[in-house]
Amino acid sequence: MKTFKKLERKLQQKDLSDWNTERWTKAVLTAMCATGRKLECTVGASPRFVSAKHRDGGEWLYDATWCSHDDDGWFKAVELVAESEWSSLERIEEDFQKLLQARATIRVMVFDAGQCDGGADAIAERLCKHVRAFHGTKGDSYVLIAYAEDEESWWFDYSLIQAGAPGALPAFQRL
Hints:
This protein has helices at 2-11, 21-38, 89-100, 119-133; strands at residues 42-45, 64-69, 75-85, 106-112, 141-149, 154-162, 171-174. The chain is α/β, with parallel strands linked by helices. Strand 3 (75-85), helix 3 and strand 4 (106-112) form a beta-alpha-beta unit. Helix 3 (89-100) runs parallel beside helix 4 (119-133). It starts with a helix and ends with a strand.
């Protein structure tokens, strides 16, 4: 979240009126990948969105992936997986379903809150229903980062979905 707050402060100083979804994706994934590299993770992301300076390899199952390895170089864990979707509620839900099956320490969904009449909260409610329905969740956490705006400014809304037992209503918390 610290990375996104920093990105938010930096970008709020710029004129973003001509930014399209590709520019937003580049900014978001580059910030995320740069952070992963600082944490000494092996970072994968599409070269279309993230320069070689901020990643170790191409996209690996998700828009961004951080992996850790042991001292001998053996794959140890997936530390973070992230999906970024700006186009529609349906596409946001499709990408979120990828995160449901991920075995990662941190799962992040970045999306445009304007893709649903109720904004970030309405989308989060839909995503909570996916978590509840999926029987592979056992205490999994999902960080939601929603791009929101009004007539005067924009910001990121942060929230967390914490899964309970399969079929149980997950906990939702604004961060």
